[in-house]
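Supplementary notes for students who missed Thursday's class. We covered one full example, reproduced here. Read the sequence, then the structure, then the short commentary at the end.
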Amino acid sequence: MALPISGDCRYADSHEYVRPEGERLRLGLSAFAVDQLGDIVFVELPAVGASLVQGASFGSVESVKAVEDLLAPVSGVVLARNEAVLASPEELQNDPYGEGWLLVLQPADPAQLAGLLDAATYSAKVQGA
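Structure (token representation):
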């Protein structure tokens, strides 16, 4: 079964996505990554106001299978975090591109988006093409 890949997002090799929303970016974990993790039991996210550095860990997702670091696809400042996912980590599994988002960022350098994968390239990567 092919997992959904949102066409309006850019993707990091580490499976985080960013969706441009005006001057801001909504950040989350792709449906492929969520599926690979299995049942998610805990999510750790940075506080509002924290600075993220592209490629650096900004939190973690714990499942019954493993604990995975979340890596920042772009640098920026955290404007909001999804408290619903922190309270109910299964939200990440139910709707990773909608209600299961993780953070809203003010990007430090919007040009970093160009270095991320578009939906077609990411789809080919996760399908092993």
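Commentary. The longest strand covers residues 57-63. The chain has one domain: 16-112. If anything here is unclear, bring it to office hours.
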